[in-house]
């Protein structure tokens, strides 16, 4: 059986959902979009135009829950399926949108195009992280094209689906056009999604015109959305975990309703980034155990509603690539996997979502492998009856070359890569390298072994044309030269 981590009883999960329904139908949500206000009024919602506040009905909420798909899949640039968000399937993706990169010396600096390309190349070889994300923001391009440029590099050098996002409708348009280049048509893109776009309400209880623009655009194009409510305990949500989960559920249900009003059947991940607000340091602590509990609890509510889920977890608040970073990331990864969160966002990120590390990504790939193995649980494999095995053990004094061992050891035991040191003083021939030295060595090894995805040349040229035109529109005549990234 698969182990299952639950922090909520079934009755408490349902009570939180019921309270969220009541809040939506009593206090409502502010929605700064006149078209959506009109559509909701037509469906029976009470719309207070002077405040843009919408009071929902239970029918509106329930109809949206009926329309939203219970699952969907993602596909790589070649159209091969990589994700199935049904049942308790679990997938990892790197954390997103860091403003700094931490190098192998532990020094933080602004990332450049060369760093992003190295990241994408590494991601083609991270076997336990199923998708890319637009992980950090290159500083050598105009900030107005940062969102589209990251997707562009991800498609030019990588093959995995991309978790991304933007706040600009014009940026969304170019990012959608890039995906259509890969798929061939808007219909083909809807049939085989290549990206997920993050859409965030403004906590508490508000969708601004900026935050709702991309949600609406995604829904119209049937591009999957992950709803990411960002409450912080005791600051912009109740200090209690249950109270924060109620607020989180209200905001996510509101986004789900809006997506289905625009286009019934829009794929949605019920996601979130709920966290502890540490009043001592004025920080949003993602490494706090309560933040991990909130991530798992929100996923349980999403599962109760019959939806695939997402959460920011398996990351660290630590400013350094140290034991704290490993502890918080590994603990979160195992909790998330055993809670059955469909899409887990976090590997590679540290320092309160502000910094990304290629070396940490290497180590986190191993954490993901261990978490995925733990989530599979323990199942017998020719273990009953046990007497024949034990008789062989007593006779031979070991089972190293037994038929049973040779049949099952590769699937039963997870053997990590070189970044994990399992040698001991009897097998070492010299002073062992440090974790950071091993991780950096693995970065170099994977980059050396990188093989570019076989993207058709006409598609590459069209992506380049679109990106250059977008850059020129914002006054950047030349993009960084790829040859400078080697």
Tell me about this structure.
With 486 residues, the protein is an alpha/beta fold. The protein folds into two domains: 10-60, no CATH class; 67-376, Alpha-Beta Barrel (TIM Barrel), CATH 3.20.20. Helix content is 44%, strand content 13%. The protein has 16 helices and 21 strands. The strands form six sheets. It has a five-stranded parallel sheet. A four-stranded mixed sheet has the order 2-3-1-12. Strands 8-7-21-20 form a four-stranded mixed sheet. α4 (113-123) packs across α5 (146-157) and α11 runs parallel beside α12. The protein is globular. The two termini are 47 Å apart. The mean pLDDT is 96.
Distance between the termini: 47 Å
- Remind me, CATH topology of the largest domain? TIM Barrel
Number of strands: 21
Structural class: alpha/beta
The name of the CATH superfamily of the largest domain reads: Trimethylamine methyltransferase-like
Identify the strand order in the major beta sheet.
Answer: 9-10-11-13-15
Helical coverage, percent range: 40-55%
Number of helices, counting only DSSP H or I runs of 4 residues or more: 16
Weakly predicted, low-confidence segments: none
Average pLDDT level: 96
The CATH architecture category of the largest domain equals Alpha-Beta Barrel
Q: Main sheet?
A: 5 strands, parallel
Rg is 24 Å
> So what's the overall shape?
globular
How much strand? 5-15%
